[in-house]
């Protein structure tokens, strides 16, 4: 493995290490801001583009789906062409996609631009974390990651309010233009401070696996999107669904025979990895739809302005920051099994309580409910993301991270599609001007999504009390030999 750090003066190498965490933080901030700033603008964007609000789920799912498809090859691209070049390309694509989103004249152009954003985003975060992993010794990695995570959480904190304020004062298109100065700053910092790590002996890209997996996931997501709009007959939709399943099954067969598959499925033989990924997937199917449905409830159902709807979601992001600082102590006190099994139920119940929100609900109660959602969700995500690496060998952490990140983005994309399907089922042909029936339909959707989240707690019951003790430091867990895990793997 070679790196530019060996070819630059010591002062420059030291300077790079100081700036690198902030560079990765800028990338994460852009991604998280973009993922949340658009939610409160959905009703306004739908009116501007002349489509129904539920149809705009394609704008959300196309981005997360692109992440799921392209994340698996981001590590290979960095090893093959260097972290500096790939990170610059990623930032440039994301910035260009943002510009095209703001210039879009119809939903089709907007979706295409979001796909371009997703391709850039799929490479930005994994490559940035890879550069951190190879720049810092393990004793310094936790400190470096703290510089990255906290600024990244500011995006979800500010995104809904800023997005609502922008569409209230100016055009929704400005939402996407906000990314451009951050993108230009990221390009400048990358050119000056990003180290250029690469692997001269990287294995050839698993092109067959990439095509099989990417095509299968894209088709499956398309089927879910079209099915929710009821614009296709059942027969062709069924055939497309079968084709997507066949492609994904073919990838599974291929991955067991290829020495270097794009996603290493043998890791699913590890119990803690399997439970964290599968349980996390099901959990995110429920929680992933909430950012899509809540703006519809607040703006269309309750009549709040976009900036007011953004304020109602801000406590959720603030609670996530608070829990991020406390999650290690919670896991040390109760352990992974207890935390995940119990917290998933609390999260689902909290989601179901949103079905009681009406125009007469005091704002303070809505804010409290939003805070509790962020509190439970942050603990859930931190626990699931860190448990992924509990029993994974050091040499496989990057492979485990690729699978976990891909599954996470898939589940969030499918979560939006699921929320749209459920909402469309209960709303039927309800006119959005009929606010009472519109709110009632959304209430039913919250109950279904909350129930789905609660069901996922059954997956985590398969954990043992001592699972993940090497990470959680759970004092009351039975003593057993624990696999060493890298601190940088813990989210």
TrEMBL record:
The chain crosses the membrane at residues 59-78, 85-105, 111-132, 144-166, 172-189, 210-228, 234-254, 275-298, 304-326, 338-357, 363-390, 411-430, 442-463. Signal peptide: none annotated. The keyword DNA repair does not apply. Its main location: membrane. Pfam families: MFS_1. InterPro entries: EmrB-like (IPR004638), MFS (IPR011701), MFS_dom (IPR020846), MFS_trans_sf (IPR036259). It is found in: Cell membrane. Keywords: Cell membrane, Membrane, Transmembrane, Transmembrane helix, Transport. One of its GO terms (cellular component) is plasma membrane. GO terms for molecular function: transmembrane transporter activity. It comes from the Bacteria. Residues 20-468 form the Major facilitator superfamily (MFS) profile domain. It is a multi-pass membrane protein. NCBIfam families: efflux_EmrB (TIGR00711). This is MFS transporter. It comes from Nibricoccus aquaticus. The lineage of its organism: Bacteria, Pseudomonadati, Verrucomicrobiota, Opitutia, Opitutales.
């Amino acid at each position: 493995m070679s790196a530019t750090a060996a070819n630059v003066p010591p002062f420059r190498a030291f300077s790079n290490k100081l700036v690198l965490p902030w560079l990765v933080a800028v990338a994460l901030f852009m991604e998280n801001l973009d993922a949340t700033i658009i939610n409160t603008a959905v009703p306004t964007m739908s009116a501007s583009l002349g489509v129904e609000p539920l149809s705009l789920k394609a704008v959300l799912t196309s981005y997360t789906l692109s992440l799921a498809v392209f994340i698996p090859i981001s590590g290979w691209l960095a090893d093959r062409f260097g972290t500096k070049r790939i990170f610059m390309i990623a930032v440039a694509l994301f910035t260009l996609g943002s510009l095209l989103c703001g210039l879009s004249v119809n939903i089709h152009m907007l979706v295409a631009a979001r796909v371009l954003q997703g391709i850039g985003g799929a490479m930005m975060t994994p490559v940035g974390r890879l550069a951190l992993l190879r720049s810092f010794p393990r004793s310094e990695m936790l400190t470096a990651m703290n510089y990255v995570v906290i600024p990244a959480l500011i995006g979800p904190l500010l995104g809904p309010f800023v997005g609502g304020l922008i569409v209230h004062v100016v055009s929704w298109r400005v939402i996407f233009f906000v990314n451009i100065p951050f993108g230009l700053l990221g390009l400048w910092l990358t050119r000056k401070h990003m180290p250029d790590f690469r692997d001269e002996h990287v294995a050839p890209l698993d092109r067959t696996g990439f095509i099989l997996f990417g095509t299968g996931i894209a088709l499956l997501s398309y089927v879910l999107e079209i099915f929710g709009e009821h614009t296709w007959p059942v027969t062709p939709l069924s055939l497309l669904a079968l084709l997507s399943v066949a492609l994904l099954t073919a990838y599974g067969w291929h991955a067991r025979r290829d020495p270097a598959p794009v996603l290493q499925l043998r890791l699913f033989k590890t119990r803690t990895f399997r439970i964290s990924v599968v349980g996390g997937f099901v959990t995110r199917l429920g929680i992933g739809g909430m950012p899509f449905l809540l703006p519809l409830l607040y703006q269309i159902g309750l009549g709040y302005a976009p900036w007011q709807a953004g304020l109602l979601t801000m406590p959720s992001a603030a609670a996530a920051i608070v829990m991020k600082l406390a999650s290690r102590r919670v896991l040390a006190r109760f352990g992974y099994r207890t935390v995940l099994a119990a917290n998933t139920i609390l999260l689902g119940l909290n989601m179901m309580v949103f079905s009681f929100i009406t125009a007469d609900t005091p704002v303070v109660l809505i804010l409290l409910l939003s805070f509790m959602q962020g509190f439970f969700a942050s603990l859930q995500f931190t626990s699931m993301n860190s448990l992924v690496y509990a029993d994974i060998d050091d040499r496989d952490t990057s492979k485990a991270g690729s699978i976990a990140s891909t599954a996470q983005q898939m589940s969030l994309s499918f979560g939006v599609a699921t929320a749209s399907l459920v909402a469309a089922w209960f709303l039927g042909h309800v006119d959005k001007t009929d606010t009472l029936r519109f709110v009632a339909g959304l209430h039913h959707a919250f109950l279904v999504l909350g129930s789905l989240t609660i069901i996922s707690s059954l997956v985590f019951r398969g954990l043992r009390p001592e699972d993940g003790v090497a990470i959680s430091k759970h004092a009351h867990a039975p003593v057993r030999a624990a696999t060493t895990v890298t601190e940088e793997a813990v989210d």
